Amino acid sequence: MKTDTIFYTLFQNLPSVLFELLEQEAAVATHYQFTSVEIKELSRRLDGLFLPKAEFPQDPIYFVEVQFQRDDDLYWRLVTEAFVYLNQYRPSKSWQAVVLWPKRSFDAGIPLAYQTSLALGQIQVVYLDELVDTSSDSIGLGIVKLVVAAEDEAVTKARNLITQVQQTPESSRRNLLELVERMLVYKFADKSRQELEAMFGLTQWQQTRFYQEVKEETELETKLGTVPRLLKVGLSVEQIAEALELDIETVQQAVEKYSEQKS
Fold first, then answer.
1. Do 166 and 67 fall within a single domain?
2. Cα-based distances in Å from 91 to 87, 118, 255
3. Triad 244, 246, 251: Cα angle to 5°
């Protein structure tokens, strides 16, 4: 699971996190729709875009970039994408760029050309490992801090976060628990689902859509793992698909992958 995907999923579900990271009121998130858009000229998709809703025309557009490894070209690419977007969509709004780094040492610094040509503060940088823990942290900020937490602190942070989620209204609890589960799977990638359940007492784990997706993926992987053996006993692709209750295309792809590994 890629780290940037984790954050964009978080922004989609809890857009208030961005504004908390920028030390603004969480309520500002109600002014925005989080989305992704195609940039035709670059044949690329902008995954982190906060667009102000029509009733808040005074608010700026936010271009958000999450970068968890050193990338000396990031600022050049981000500003280029921002200007191509502005040229393509012609919004009558101001804009800001936000870059989230896990730690300061990964950041090569904003190029001098942008320091002199863009407005002061138009590119805002957040170093996630420098966020200060407070008793008033929201669930969203708790998830962010879990992602960047040191291994010896991560278990305690995760347990506190789960306790916090379990105290939320039932109407939102399942979605929040699903977000936390995604972070746990990322953070503790060396642990099985069963180990995570035992570590964190996730008795509601099986009720979430994410768990069901993981379960289905696991069952599919198990079925596809039997394809080579079924081929060896002489079954055709059609017969294997029928026996495993899979579509023929899925089985054919597994057969091709198996053949490539043999060659």
1. yes
2. 8, 18, 49
3. 95
The 10 Å Cβ neighbour count of residue 58 is 8
Q: What is the pTM of this model?
A: 0.75
Positive or negative torsion for Cα 115, 117, 121, 124:
negative
Instruction: Please report which confidence band the pLDDT of residue 211 belongs to, taking 50, 70 and 90 as the band edges.
Output: low
> Do residues 25 and 87 share a domain?
yes
Q: Which token pair is 246?
A: 């899979």
User: Which residues share a beta bridge with 61?
Assistant: 95
Q: What CA–CA distance (Å, rounded) separates 13 from 69?
A: 24
Indicate whether 197 and 237 sit together in one domain: no
For residue 195, being part of any structural domain is answered with: yes
pLDDT of residue 40: 82
Dihedral angle, C-alpha 33, 38, 39, 45, nearest 10 °: 90
Number of neighbouring beta carbons within 10 Å of residue 61: 19
pLDDT tens digit sequence for 3-22: 788 899 899 999 999 999 99
Q: What is the pLDDT of residue 213?
A: 63
Beta carbons within 8 Å of 181's beta carbon, 6+ residues apart: 196, 202, 205, 208, 210, 211
CA distance 96 to 174: 33
Backbone angles phi, psi at 44, to 5 degrees: -135, 165
Instruction: Check: CB of residue 77 under 8 Å from CB of residue 44.
Output: no
Q: In a 3-state reduction of DSSP, which class is residue 220?
A: helix
- Give 28-54 pLDDT, tens digit per residue: 999 999 999 988 877 778 889 999 999
